[in-house]
Amino acid sequence: MVYLPYGVTNNESGFRTNKAIRTLKDLEGMRLRLSGLEQGRLLEKLGGSQVSMAGGEIYQALERGVIDGAEFSTPNVDWSGGFQQVAKFWATPGWHQSASLFGVMINKASWDALSAETQEDLKVAAQANLIWSLSFTEKRATEAYQKFVDYGIEITRYDDETLARVQEMANEVIEVTACENPDSAKVYLSQLEYLADYAKWRDASAPFNLGRTPDGPDIEKIRACVK
User: Fold this and answer.
1) Residue range 38-63, pLDDT digits in tens
2) What is the pTM of this model?
3) For residue 106, what are the CA distances in angstroms to 5, 91, 114, 132?
4) Mean pLDDT calculated for residue range 215-222
5) Backbone φ, ψ for residue 13 (5° rounding)
6) What SS3 string covers the chain?
7) Which pLDDT belongs to residue 124?
8) How far apart are CA 109 and CA 81, in angstroms?
9) Cβ contacts of residue 81 below 8 Å, gap of 6+?
10) Residue 214 has pLDDT above 90, yes or no
11) Rounded to whole angstroms, how far apart are CA atoms 181 and 165?
C-alpha cells in the first residue's frame, strides 16, 4: 500500500451537551457519544460512559435525550451539523482528539503501474491540499466559534490543572492499550519518538512555535512492547 496524506485539521471542538461541563466531576454518569478506543477508556476512567454512533445520528440523539452529549468534529463542521439547536453548552478543549489526518490508500501494484510523472503529480496534489486544508479549516473554525457565541451557546474551558490531570490519565490508558497489540505499540513508539525529537526545537522557541510538547507516556514502556 502507498499512503498519501492530503488533509489535516487542528483539534476537534469538544463535548456539546445540555448540562455544563466545567470540571471532571461533571463528566460522572454522563452518556457521551465519543469515537475511539483509547478515548472511550479514558472517559470511563473519568466516570462517564462511551456511546458509539454514526455522525448522522447525533442530532436526533441529542434532541431526544438519548445521550447527554456528543463530540463530532471541528467548530465549522459542528455548526453545519446544527448542534447549536440541540445542545446549549460547549466544553472545550477537545482533549479526545487533538488533530485529524486524512489520506488516500493506494494499492501498491496499482501505484507501481502508474508513470513516474503521474506518481509525482499525485504527490504534489496531496501535499498542496494538506497545507491548504489546515489554513482553510482554522479560518472556518474561527468564524464558526463566533457563530456559536452569537447564538447564545455557553462555552466553558477546563483549567490547566484539570487538563494536566487528563494528560496523566491519558498516558496511563495509552501505555496499557499500546501494549495490547505489537502493531499498536509500533505506531505509538513512532509518534512518541517524533514528539521527543520535535520537542527540542519547539521548546527552544516556545512560546512562539506551534502547539505544546505534551508530557506523554513512558516511551521505554512502549518500546518494550514492540516485537
Assistant:
1) 999 999 999 999 999 999 999 999 99
2) 0.90
3) 11, 38, 11, 22
4) 93
5) -60, -50
6) CEEEEEEEECCCCCEEECCCCCCHHHHCCCEEECCCHHHHHHHHHCCCEEECCCHHHHHHHHHHCCCCEECCCCHHHHHHCCHHHCCCEEEECCCCCCCEEEEEEECHHHHHCCCHHHHHHHHHHHHHHHHHHHHHHHHHHHHHHHHHHHHCCEEEECCHHHHHHHHHHHHHHHHHHHCCCHHHHHHHHHHHHHHHHHHHHHHHCCCCCCCCCCCCCCHHHHHCCCC
7) 98
8) 39
9) 55, 58, 59, 72, 73
10) no
11) 26
pLDDT tens for 176-194 read 999 999 999 999 999 999 9
All three cell numbers of 144, joined, read: 464558526
Q: Which three cell numbers stand for residue 212?
A: 505544546
* The three three-digit cell numbers of residue 168, written as one number: 496523566
At 43 the pLDDT is: 97
